[in-house]
Design brief:
alpha+beta; OB fold (Dihydrolipoamide Acetyltransferase, E2P); 38% helix
């Protein structure tokens, strides 16, 4: 099955060859040292499939191990972080390696080709194998097959390279078994501790730990919001023509905030003025005729009512014109998105355009998800971790909680919490976001750990 390369002819080494041989031996010794000093099986597997390339050039290296049932399992592939077990190449190669491992001649390093495998494997050989393959087994101290390396490259393998890899494979096999035993001993020591005379002590210790009282806590998204802000809305239906302030700018009471387009209202006001003048003229004409014409005298009351109607229309349109320009009703900062989002946008009566807030009167608004809800009372302590400075949390006190969950801006169902800052001198900028940690009552550690699993179980079972 495994083909041995023909031995190379013996020649007298030259000085250049001697230097190259010294470099090769130094590289071999360094890789062996790195393998034996590997701190974990994963680190060793990385060295085997990647660092071997420093000694012998290849296109791809595959590390595999032989399981107790004789099957081959691929552990690492050069240049690949994670192995997809469902990949057709991995599936085919594991079957092929299993066939090689079943042959007793597979305990020797050498080249293999398509003729060395069964007919079912030969059909896909050209699809998955590019170039020449070198079979490099990893053997235990008893000479049993533990695993191996499957190396491929376009050039032919040389006898000297096979000898180097056979030596290196022996070091790899020893290091691999040593790291596996060390890893298993660490896991086994924990299992051993839970057996025999330590079992009762272990269980008692675990029970005591689970009975430790801890404080319930929950995390929720947080945002700095103003206290008692003034919502600036559109007083009438129309189109926003101008916005006179920049976002987050400071305004004084009476400052102009934005204006609606007044073209339609101005025309209506002009028409109402003309109609009022016409009504007034009609009334004066009828009053003059009333001295000699009884019919004109009878129309005076109707014309006087018409004057009142026209004057009411003038007053109404005048009031609308006064509402076209919206002014600030208090000092503060104007909070809205951007002027380009509103210019030319049609709005309806009562639609929110911006918010006026005092920068030195802020609080935190938290959205506690329904699944994370715990028992909370007003006055519960809260820690706030702002995204701009998460290493220096702010402290606060729960001031208000919503009775029922609400739909958040993100579309989730959560309880709204309002938290006041303990230090009134610290007022973060409105709009800053972060995470809030809310503390509830003290419960046993076992209850704290199993709260969410029990909640999920109740939802699943209906009890």
């Amino acid at each position: 099955m495994v083909q041995q390369s023909a031995p190379a002819e013996t020649t007298t080494p030259k000085k250049g060859n001697t230097d190259q041989t010294a470099i090769t031996l130094a590289t071999l010794l360094q890789i062996e040292k790195d393998a034996r000093h590997a701190v974990s099986p994963a680190a060793l597997r990385f060295i085997i499939v990647n660092e071997t390339h420093r000694l012998v050039r290849y296109d791809q290296a595959v590390l595999w191990r032989r399981l107790t049932d004789g099957q081959a399992r691929i552990e690492a592939v050069s240049g690949v972080a994670d192995i997809s077990r469902e990949a057709p190449y991995i599936h085919w190669l594991e079957k092929t390696l299993t066939e090689f491992a079943a042959d007793t001649s597979g305990n020797r390093t050498g080249q293999v080709d398509m003729q060395s495998v069964s007919h079912s494997r030969q059909q896909d050989w050209d699809t998955w194998v590019k170039g020449n393959v070198l079979w490099c087994p990893l053997l235990t101290a008893r000479g049993e097959l533990y695993g191996g390396l499957w190396l491929t490259r376009s050039n032919q393998w040389q006898t000297g390279e096979e000898a180097l890899l056979e030596r290196l494979a022996d070091a790899y096999a020893h290091a691999w078994q040593a790291t596996e035993k060390q890893h298993d001993s660490i896991l086994g020591s924990g299992a051993k501790f839970l057996h025999g005379r330590y079992r009762l002590l272990s269980l008692m210790a675990i029970l005591l730990i689970l009975m430790i009282p801890v404080r319930q806590s929950a995390l929720a998204p947080a945002e700095v919001v103003p206290i008692d802000p003034v919502i600036v809305t559109s007083p009438l239906e129309g189109v926003i023509r101008d916005i006179h302030i920049e976002p987050n700018s400071i305004v004084k009471k009476g400052d102009s905030l934005f204006s609606l387009d007044d073209t339609t209202i101005s025309n209506q006001h002009t028409v109402a003025l003309k109609a009022a003048e016409v009504a007034q003229a009609e009334y004066l004409l009828a009053a003059q005729k009333a001295f000699s014409d009884e019919e004109s005298k009878s129309e005076l009351a109707l014309l006087r009512s018409r004057i009142g109607l026209r004057e009411a229309e003038v007053q109404y349109t005048s009031e609308l014109l006064d509402k076209v320009d919206i002014h600030a009703t208090r000092d503060g900062i104007a909070i809205y998105t951007a002027a380009s989002d509103w210019l030319g946008k049609p709005v309806i009566t009562g639609e929110k355009v911006m918010t006026l807030a005092s920068p030195d009167q802020t609080e935190m608004q938290l959205w506690l998800p329904v699944d994370d809800a715990i028992s909370l009372e007003t006055g519960a302590p809260v820690k706030i971790f702002l995204n701009i400075d998460p290493t220096h949390p702010l402290t606060g006190t729960l001031r208000q909680t919503s009775y029922e969950p609400q739909v958040t801006p993100d579309g989730n169902l959560a309880f709204q919490l309002k938290v006041g800052f303990d230090n009134p001198d610290i007022q973060p900028r409105i709009g800053l976001k972060g995470t809030g940690k809310i503390y509830g009552d003290r419960v046993l550690l076992i209850g704290y750990l199993l709260r969410r699993p029990f909640s999920a179980l109740r939802r699943f079972t209906g009890f």
